[in-house]
């Protein structure tokens, strides 16, 4: 059976510009071969490829992967159904996952700003 851990339990996405496939694999609790397969199935998912055909994912790619993961593993969609939900953008689950990912990230960034301000005071 598919892994059923929740996206809310996944680690906060660091404030980096690019992520390797190994880093994304850990951030999204999905194996690298699954990420490569999803690239073929979801046209929205297209990481930057550099020398040696290495993949580099951006922040929005990681969020997209977490959305796909939620649709497949938590909501029980098939690949085709998840692709349709992603294309139409009508899924309340997709919007909920977006908020679940953005809010903790914003909180972490604001806490970092508070630390900087506290250090200057």
Automatic annotation (TrEMBL):
UniProt KW Metal-binding keyword: no
Name of the protein: MerR family transcriptional regulator
Alphabetically ordered keywords of this record: DNA-binding
Biological source species: Microbulbifer harenosus
Lineage: superkingdom: Bacteria
Keyword DNA-binding: yes
Pfam families the UniProt entry points to: MerR_1
Annotated PANTHER family: BLL5018 PROTEIN, REDOX-CYCLING DRUG-SENSING TRANSCRIPTIONAL ACTIVATOR SOXR
Residue ranges constituting the HTH merR-type domain according to the UniProt record: 18-88
């Amino acid at each position: 059976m598919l892994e059923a851990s929740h996206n809310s339990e996944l680690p906060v996405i660091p404030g980096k510009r690019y992520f390797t496939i190994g880093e994304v694999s850990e951030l999204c609790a999905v194996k690298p071969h699954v990420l490569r397969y999803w690239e073929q199935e979801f046209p929205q998912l297209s990481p930057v490829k550099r020398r040696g055909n290495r993949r580099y994912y951006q922040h929005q790619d990681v969020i997209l992967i977490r959305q796909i993961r939620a649709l497949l593993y938590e909501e029980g969609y098939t690949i085709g159904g998840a692709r349709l939900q992603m294309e139409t953008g009508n899924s309340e689950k997709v919007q909920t996952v977006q908020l679940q990912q953005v809010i903790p990230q914003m909180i972490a960034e604001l806490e970092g700003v508070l630390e900087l301000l506290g250090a200057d005071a």
